[in-house]
Amino acid sequence: MATNEILYIGEPNDVLLTGLNLDSSGAYQNSQTVTGEVRTKTTQVESDDETAEADVITNGTSIGTFTLSYIAASNGNYRGSLATADAAELVAGTYYWLWVLSSGKTQRRLNCLAQFRRKT
Question: How much is the pTM?
Fold first, then answer.
């Protein structure tokens, strides 16, 4: 996946997680409970020195949660969707975290940018 994923404002956002596996063995995880959550990105400054890289990015506030379902006969692939009502809370040009967590303790965090879909 790209460094910055796009979340579209005011419409459902499909999320595809590919190749969920155990970090220790690499074995695909095909029977996990997988959830997703979009959270605001919050930065807390921990230093008065403006040149220091002492900022800590925290989890922020939850915008919405959803469940991802296993895609049959795939190697660790799951699909879910952020609801339209939750996506309506997004602010254009703002970055968010998309957290994906599995019951097998695997987690992924993606950097996402909110924007309106361009009309064609």
Answer: 0.79
